Amino acid sequence: MKATFLASALAALALGFFPARSQAATNETGSWDSKAAAAYLDQRADWWMGWSQSARDHDTFCISCHTALPYALGRPALRAALGEQSPSASERKLLDNITKRVRLWSEVEPFYSDEKRGAPKTAESRGTEAVLNALILANYDAHQGKLSDDTRTALDNMWALQLKTGDGKGAWTWLNFHNQPWEAEDSQFWGATLGAIAAGTAPGDYRSTPAIQTNLKLLSEYLREGVSSQSLINRVFLLWASAKVSGILKPDQQKAIIDEVLSKQQPDGGWNTSSIVMGTWKRRDGTALDTSSDGYATGLVSFVLEQAGVPRTQPALKNGLSWLTRNQDRAAGLWLAYSLNKQRDPASDIGRFMIDAATAYSVLALSDGK
After folding, report:
1. C-alpha dihedral sign at 292, 192, 60, 80
2. H or E element: which one contains 60?
3. Are 327 and 355 in contact (CB under 8 A)?
């Protein structure tokens, strides 16, 4: 379900190596390469699923916020352009992993336990995983048009872990490794927006199910009460959630978010991620944050504006989509973005985490938000 846009708001690369930013190939033709984007996303998903540090018990792997989640959201959007009739082999492997963990929910260990990283993470890990599992499976079911038993179980797991008391009442405990933009001090709010998106994305009018109305009420109250203190990037995700579940935001609140995000657009038509996260955020190695337009912010903002009902002909969105078509590295299929936490080598696998997310959200935006 897309919200109706407020009328007043309309006013020599291979997958194996990376060039310097100034040498990245750009596309000046007004088109983009969906096949190359799919190849990049599949290759990165395969790497993540096979990486030793992502391995978990019962022969499963961790669902990461930077690579696996954006991949699961963005890759299905390429199916029509590529003439695919079903998920790719990489998608299938990811889905099999999630359904296995959903079915073994009471048996599998959390992604992070108390003994790892020197801090108690069991509850945070369970809450985080429950939301990610539900969102990914709901998104795939939405493409099929029918709610599966596994997705319903994943949603049940998610609601069972929703906090019913305390400061986070209505949200979920969330992993905090002091990494922006997904595992930091303000990421519990971000996770709550994902829970709302999961409920609103699930097909069969799941959001109207009588059994979850109390849960949705608690979640909506948490999101509304916390909106004023959130970073713009969290409010962008909240705008997306409000397009999926009516009543989370009032029209004037939606308009305020749209107006603010439009005010952050850069002269070249793109958006910059560091300008929409917590204003006090600094890299821990002391290096300066990147201030140029990047694929993550531009892809995310453009996609969410589409979800909020902004027409592609609206000048700011049109310019954002134009930035994306001009700035895909078509040789590698990707869009560049940069770590907010430290300066990283973009040729390294870890250095590509932000690029993975940037490419997935850029694909979503250019695929007309579908």
Report:
1. negative
2. strand 60-61
3. no
Q: What is the b/e burial string over 70-89, where b = at least 16 CB atoms within 10 angstroms of the residue's CB?
A: bbbbbbbbbbebeeeeebbe
Please list, in sequence order, all residues whose beta carbon lies within 8 angstroms of the beta carbon of residue 92, skipping any fewer than 6 positions away.
none
Residue owning tokens 């003439």:
83
Selection from 181, 208, 213, 209 nearest residue 194 by Cα: 181
How does pLDDT run across 54-63, given as a tens digit for each residue?
A: 999 999 999 9
pLDDT of residue 4: 41
d(CA 196, CA 19): 38
What are the distances in angstroms from CA 114 to CA 53, 120, 122, 199? 17, 4, 6, 29
Q: What angle do CA 190, 303, 224 make, to 5 degrees?
A: 35
Mean pLDDT, to the nearest integer, of 73-81? 96
Annotate 206-234 with DSSP letters as a single string.
GGG-GGGHHHHHHHHHHHHHHGGGS-HHH
Nearest CA among 160, 38, 24, 154 for reference residue 87: 38
DSSP letter string, 287-320:
PPPP-S--HHHHHHHHHHHHHTT--TTSHHHHHH
Environment class of 38 (CB within 10 Å of its CB; exposed 0-12, middle 13-18, buried 19+): buried
State pLDDT tens for residues 151-186.
999 999 999 999 999 999 999 999 999 999 999 999
HSE-CB at 100 with a 13 A cutoff on CA atoms is 16
The residue type at 209? T
Q: Report the distance separating Cα 361 and Cα 359, nearest Å.
A: 6
Residues 272, 313: Cα–Cα separation, whole Å:
22
Q: What is the pTM of this model?
A: 0.91
Q: What is the DSSP letter of 171?
A: S
CA distance 117 to 113: 9
d(CA 254, CA 243): 9
